[in-house]
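Workshop exercise sheet. Pairs work together: one partner reads the sequence aloud, the other fills in the structure field after running the prediction. Swap roles for the next sheet.
Pair: D.N. / O.F.
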Amino acid sequence: MKISSHRKFALLLLPFALITGDSIAQRYAGPLSPEESLKKLNVAPGFSAQIYAAEPFVVDPVALEFDEMGNAYVVEMPDYPYEVEPGKGHGRIKMLSDTNGDGRIDKATIFAENVTEATSVLPWKGGLIVTAAPNILYLKDTNGDGKSDTSEILFSGFFQNNSEAQVTSLRFGIDNWIYANNRGQSGKVTFSKTPGEAPVEVRGADFRFRLDRNIFELETGPGQFGQTIDDWGHRFFTENSIHLQQAVIPWRYTHRHAFLPTSKFNATITDHEEIMFQETAPPYWRAERTNQRNKMYKENNMNRIEYAEDRFTGASGGMIYNGDALPKEFYGNLFTTDVAGNLVHRDILTPDAKSPVLAAKRGEKEKEREFIYSTDTWFRPVTSSVGPDGYLYVLDYYRQHIETPVSIPDDLKADMDFMAGSDKGRIYRILPTNASYKNASVDLKGMSSAKLVEVLGRNNGWWRLQAQRLLLERQDKSAVPVVKASISSSKDPRARLHALYVLEGLNSLTADVVKKGLMDSAPGVRENALILAEKFPESLPLMIQKTNDTDKRVAFQAALSIGNFNNKEVVAALANVVEKYGEDAWFRNAVLSSEAGSSPELLKALSQRPSFVKNAGDWKSSFLQDLSTIIGARNNKSQMVSYLDIISQPVLNNEKAQIALLKGLKTGLSKNEASNVQLKEVLSQINTDNVQGVKAGVVALKKMY
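Structure field:
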């Protein structure tokens, strides 16, 4: 791994500093002015950085969003890393202004203050939705003075004891849902708009909701601080030591029944592991803690090693760039910040030819460096954002230390000031080298609904999503004919997809429009049309056809979507999916997640395919075992009778298939809490190591059922 000259020098000085004394000045560097820190910032060739905002106008920034008027709202989190009681926090939300048009913020208006644990905001109906554990709030300025004067608790009951694991990262998706990360933390959540409903336990999940329809539900996760959604609705999230994960199968599919053998429905998609190119030496406390831990691992003969540097440990704020001010090849790239490594990492997302998930790789010019790195150890990039001007904005928390005190041994944190830098903060604008800053004039609020439909075709994704959100908020049905016309006239598939979801949001979607989407030339449109088609049973024959789509992601979504139906045509189609794509575990789980795809009828359909049964090794055995596990765990008597009868057929008299089928049944039945003593006794005597034991086991189970 490449080590720069200035980093080598810092590493050489570190032992000397430890020997000559214990003062903070020797162990930890001091802060730099915004201008001096900017000089330490190194951006990839072809790009430069400008100061967009700095103290005193912004301190401790953790989120930046622009509303439909182009107003910039920043969330400040000065209380970190200490926990505070609700209502006693010092968090703020500010509206930032550039009054002289020079591109740098020179005015800040406090929109809301004393907000405990605020971590993200999202514009909605002229106000802001705010994640502030244990609540999600709605704040609004009703008199035009720039300050919130109404506060409403929308959701309550989220986990609140660790600021690094709270509800956060609000994002408005292409599908009209608003998504939030929950880190999988426990909490019994209630919604103020549905007061009569029982609290929902959110443990193990993330969260999504719609305020236009007053509904909410769990979502696949768990993500930490950082969530982003691409043009086609694919969702990605960040975890401190795993810089990029994709939510592959949404919660609504994986919980159609309670018996799936696996509970992991997200994937780490990077092809370069969790390695980063850090250009700062590890701080004293981290180097010492790592040495102590590795010594303990060795003494206890543990096959484990901890890294003090060059591995993601503070990854956060993953964001897909969808603006139009950077070169076209950067559109759709995903930027992840790492506060511990003082850097911003870039991933290029591409379809995986063998799987429905995407693959993330480094750019050719970033094989041995990061897109942005700083040699100022106070540089703490926490997230990034795209503005209406199309530029990339990077938020710098600017702190001396960025670790929670509970994670550091007492002897190492004795001279650490965890609040050093709580009066500072910077936001940088990233733009092409030699480019002149161009301010964007924004007034979407004043546009007619027809004009907003035109905005759905803009290249900058910020404009498109804002226009879609406003059309959703307005519920102006007069726009429907214009929206429908745009589906036929627009040459940009992104605009056609926005139009489909605008119609969905206006309750004006029809089966004919959905069918047109299913036949669209763009895979991303077809994929989403399948989701929309789930509400139109008359579209099922065309949905079934899409299981053979040339695009794997479309075929994958088709397998998920048709699983919402249950008839012999669906069973046959899912059997085709298993035979064609079953080597991929995601396709297998997509099939098994549905009732039809986890039924005795599916096994019967597969048993009638000689090519499947004769070569029942490897992934096929795995699938058969998982299918049987579900059947057994469900323990439905009529299903068990039918299933055992199918297993007994001569066509399934294949040793590998027989062993896999009974192993699964035994596992599933053992999990079922309703299994009686007699059944448990029979299960204990079943031998699945050889075909003779399997056949005897099938006979014993048939007697039971």
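Discussion prompt: Residues 655-671 form the longest helix (17 residues). What would you look at next?
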